[in-house]
Amino acid sequence: AGIGKCVAMDLARRNARTILACRSRERGQAAVKEIREATGNPAVVLRLLDTGSLASVRAFARAVLQEEPRLDVLVNNAGVTGLPFSITSERLEQTFATNYLGPFLLTNLLLG
């Protein structure tokens, strides 16, 4: 939704292979369908990612590095605000993990 979806739409319009990294499979599939229909680009795909989970970040990066021949652009756009204080299963504060640690780890893992 929001800025991330607009960026994905623009990349797809430019005929780029576009990977939507979404936490929700249902919302992600709806966005993929909408972007494909609006742009005519069939190379828009969904991969599940929760940047609040470092295990999810590692799995996503591993899959991208194995499946994609190259990665030209990474847009770190995930973020949360206003959540009640909570600790992840990895013993990290949820907002900090989602907004900072997850994207930092993802970027570093994808740099190769």
TrEMBL record:
<dbReference type="InterPro" id="IPR002347">
    <property type="entry name" value="SDR_fam"/>
</dbReference>
<comment type="similarity">
    <text>Belongs to the short-chain dehydrogenases/reductases (SDR) family.</text>
</comment>
<protein>
    <submittedName>
        <fullName>DHR13 reductase</fullName>
    </submittedName>
</protein>
<dbReference type="GO" id="GO:0016491">
    <property type="term" value="F:oxidoreductase activity"/>
</dbReference>
<dbReference type="Pfam" id="PF00106">
    <property type="entry name" value="adh_short"/>
</dbReference>
<keyword id="KW-0560">Oxidoreductase</keyword>
<dbReference type="InterPro" id="IPR036291">
    <property type="entry name" value="NAD(P)-bd_dom_sf"/>
</dbReference>
